[in-house]
Specification:
CATH superfamily of one domain: Winged helix-like DNA-binding domain superfamily/Winged helix DNA-binding domain
Largest sheet: 3 strands, antiparallel
Shape: elongated
Strand order of the largest sheet: 1-3-2
Helix content: 55-70%
CATH architecture of one domain: Orthogonal Bundle
Distance between the termini: 55 Å
Strand content: 5-15%
Low-confidence stretches: none
Structural class: mainly alpha
Length: about 160
């Protein structure tokens, strides 16, 4: 009995949704492994990016920006606070909520994590020529925007 996995039947290998799911699983593994080597998770990266690009936010706003469930956001923010990457302060306009702010340590952490995510993207897309990488990203963006109209277009991002 061979331990090498058999390729899926040709008809299955030609289904775009199956190919996308397979590529997504590979991408997820590459990113997760690199971030884990630095003691980080994808949600840490997402929260840091959202704070860096769009500024301070409440926990609920940050949850909407990143797609992280509100119940999971608490743990993400606790972990980022423990490492000094974020600061929680009462909102002067509404003392019932906190405003989450990226700290200088958070900016430095984001730079390192950004480099790791970029490495993972390079490895993922290595079989493609640079122009194919750009086209692949463009096509994925078209698909995502079509099926998720709320998804911001890159040229519309702040």
């Amino acid at each position: 009995m061979s331990t090498t996995p058999e390729p899926a039947p040709a008809r299955l290998r030609a289904i775009p949704s199956r190919l996308i799911a397979g590529a997504a699983a590979i991408a997820d593994r590459l990113v997760s492994e690199r971030l884990a080597a630095e003691g980080a998770r994808k949600w840490h990266f997402a929260a840091l990016v959202a704070l860096a690009e769009e500024g301070p936010a409440s926990q609920a706003e940050l949850s909407r920006r990143t797609g992280i469930y509100r119940s999971d956001m608490v743990a993400v923010l606790n972990e980022l606070a423990e490492t000094g990457c974020i600061r929680r302060e009462p909102d002067p306009a509404d003392r019932r909520r906190n405003v989450i702010t990226l700290t200088p340590a958070g900016h430095r952490r984001l730079e390192r994590l950004d480099a790791l995510v970029t490495e993972a993207q390079r490895e993922l897309l290595a079989p493609l020529a640079p122009d194919e990488q750009d086209e692949f990203t463009r096509l994925l963006t078209v698909l995502t925007e079509h099926h998720h109209p709320w998804h911001p277009r890159p040229h519309e991002a702040k």
